[in-house]
Every structure is written in structure tokens, then in C-alpha cells.
Amino acid sequence: MATDPDTQTVTQNRERGRFEIAVDGKRVGLARYVEDDGRRIFFHTEVDEAFSGEGLASVLVRQALDATREEGLRVIAVCPYVAAYVKRHHDWDDLLDRADRQALDALRQVDS
After folding, report:
1. Model confidence pLDDT, tens digit, residues 40-59
2. Torsion over CA: 49, 69, 35, 100 (sign)
3. Pairing of strands 18-23, 26-36
4. What is 12-63 written as a DSSP string?
């Protein structure tokens, strides 16, 4: 059973370094990132298995990328899902940077 788009909400939790998607007020997914030198490095995306196949990850990532653009940041897609998403959707091509040593060092500083 698909969720009603009107019940889906994406918010940014800066303190925890992630965007979260909720359905009917319950968090069901997240896209984690770290910021470094004007770049937002996305490194992990997940959606609760009970909501698999409903397109929530796409909604989450699209809104996270839009917010990143609005904040004037570049994007590094280390997360396989985010990398595949931007490869299929070219709206953010102008924001994409390749992962470099500095980005990978920033990821090593993240608590799991």
C-alpha cells in the first residue's frame, strides 16, 4: 500500500547531519551527510523496509539535493543510492564534485 504524498515530510536535522523523511509523523528514512569546505558529502541513505518500493528514498534525496542547492553548497555523492540518483537525474549536475582525499578524510571523522 503506497503512502499518501500529503503525509510525507522531509526535514533537515543539522545536529545529527542528516535529512529525515517521515510518514504520518514517524521517521522512516534518512540521508546522512557531513559538510566540509562548502561541500555536502552524502554517505548513507536508508528507508525502513516496511516502506520499501514506495519511492520515499527518491523523495528524500531530491529534497535533500534541493536544500543543498538553496544553501549554496556543492555535492559529493559517496552514498551508492545518491550517486545512482544523480546519475539518472541531471538537475544537480552543476553541483557535483568528485570525492577527493579531503572529502574522504572528512568522512573518517564521522561517528558511525
Report:
1. 999 999 999 999 899 999 99
2. positive
3. antiparallel
4. EEGGGTEEEEEETTEEEEEEEEEEETTEEEEEEEEE-GGGTTSSHHHHHHHH
pTM here?
Answer: 0.91
Give the C-alpha separation, 71 to 91, whole Å: 16
Cβ-based burial of 9 (10 A; exposed 0-12, middle 13-18, buried ≥19): middle
- Amino acid in the structure at residue 32: R
Burial group, residue 29, by CB count within 10 angstroms (0-12, 13-18, 19+): buried
